[in-house]
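Intended use. Records like the one below are meant for learning the mapping from a protein sequence to its folded structure. Do not use them to infer anything beyond what is encoded.
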Amino acid sequence: MKKILITFIGNNDCLLKERKEGAIISILKERPFDLLYILYNDTRYLQHASDILLYCRKKFPNLTVRYQEAESLNPIDYNLVYPSMVSAIKSIMKEEGTKDVEYTISLTSGTPTMHSCWILIVMGGIIDAKLIQSSREDGIQDVNFSLDDFPQISSEKKAKIELTKTNRENKILHKQLLDSYADLIGEHESIIQVKRQIDNLAKYDIPVFISGESGTGKEVVSRLLHYNSPRKEGPFVAVNCGSISENLFESEFFGHKKGSFTGAIADHEGFFSQADKGTLFMDEVGDLPLPMQVKLLRVLEEGAIQPVGGKTKQVNVRIVAASNKDLNQLVREGRFREDLFYRIVQAQISLSPLRDRGSDILLLARQFLSDFSTKNRADKHFSDAAERKLLAYNFPGNVRQLQNIVKLAYIHSQSDVIDDRDFIFVDISDNTLNVEIPTEGVDLDNEIIPAYYRAAMKLAKNNASEAARLLGLKPHTFRARLKALTESKDSEHGK
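Structure written out for the chain above:
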């Protein structure tokens, strides 16, 4: 008999990297299952689902993990959640069947609305399944209901009418007609084109290169390519190439065996193994030193890796790469291998900077504000002056910087209206930078960009995390680039 566990993924299930096990892992440790279905209603949870998959591969090697979308606009709206869950359950039952199958549903992960709908689905006979719940105090418990526990409905036909079936179906249809890429908000033609490219390229198992400035959403695009592809049930692994030191490259990307070098106290799965049968997103691939490029090229050509101290093994990985640098220019300068370029740049998606997307700035700002309002249960909105100020700013840190600015404005505002005075813009001006552009031009990589980094560190009083925020960068990305710039400067001075 095949034993299948079905569960939503909740916030407490997303803490594996913090070494905190949620309900899903607790259940799997106590009860054996052959197959785990993780339901999600928001693409933001897919990375957490992928983390659970990677954990299960190590701890429960005989367990198969699959994802199943339950579309809904609002996880607390019964009119949307219930039919979405019914549709998801029917899809699972169609795939797995009912003969020689034992279904179990967890009531722990997800929202209270989802928990109630699970009970209605099981007691309504849509699926024959056990109900369980998990708690730290009492462990795993069976949840048993009898039909006698529920009030009787005199007319089934009347009941179905009273449930406003037509209204629910209309809302679900509306959801399907809406743009499915909620994480890629925008109406500008450049964004519409990107969405078309994702629709087209996701179906084909070829490498894709994403270009664009820092903060434009390259990782968002890479996730959409993965989760709309035939590999969507496999893991998605993201790595920032600029943050990996050369001496750790092989260990981080290919893994190592216990005892293979000093400090290797246990076996380590590299990025390629983690992403097997899924997608490996290599951000800032242009930052890879040439020796590392050679090793990467060999793996891409042979489809095999050799962990440090281990044996060669085959891997099946789709590569999605990204960079804010011009790889063509790097190839011409001899800083990026031409053969590797043609391996990873078989299809390309280019992301426009936010300053070129016009009114998309307001669409994004309003969405971020709505998210903060929902999370903090206090609605706020922008004044006309605030929106004009947003439209006038050039956002060197792009979407990521806009999100930070809106978040800080929400915190600083003393009323339900965010005014232009609530915004904190850190403009790194020409006076701060003390940069003049000569008639012969400038070298951005060696002149302008280092000046921005130094200016940010000065304004942040040498706090790297704060400097990264000012430039709209992730802290580890900023530190890696700052280190590279420092090493380059030291080399020029013969240190």
